[in-house]
UniProtKB/TrEMBL annotation:
Its main location: plastid. GO terms for cellular component: chloroplast; mitochondrion; small ribosomal subunit. It is found in: Plastid, Chloroplast. Signal peptide: none annotated. Belongs to the bacterial ribosomal protein bS16 family. This is Small ribosomal subunit protein bS16c. Keywords: Chloroplast, Plastid, Ribonucleoprotein, Ribosomal protein. HAMAP family: Ribosomal_bS16 (MF_00385). One of its GO terms (biological process) is mitochondrial translation. GO terms for molecular function: structural constituent of ribosome.
Length: 77
């Protein structure tokens, strides 16, 4: 099963996150299927590749709670 979830990047005390499509069995920093977005909680910036996100959602990917909230704020749902 595929999930849309956050992958931590950046440096210590200055985290930024990539929104990735990744297999459920992979760890947080594991190999992703595709990068579909970017989220910076400090600057409150998001970049979303909406066609890629919709493609994975159509194929049955489940977003995590945090990613769901980000997508809802961006009016993808």
């Amino acid at each position: 099963m595929v999930k849309l979830r956050l992958k931590r990047c950046g440096r210590k005390q200055r985290a930024v996150y990539r929104i990735v499509a990744i297999d459920v069995r992979s760890r947080r920093e594991g190999r992703d299927l595709r990068k579909v977005g970017f989220y910076d909680p400090i600057k409150n910036q998001t970049y979303l590749n909406v066609p890629a996100i919709l493609y994975f959602l159509e194929k049955g990917a489940q977003p995590t709670e945090t990613v769901y909230d980000i997508l809802k704020r961006a009016e993808v749902f």
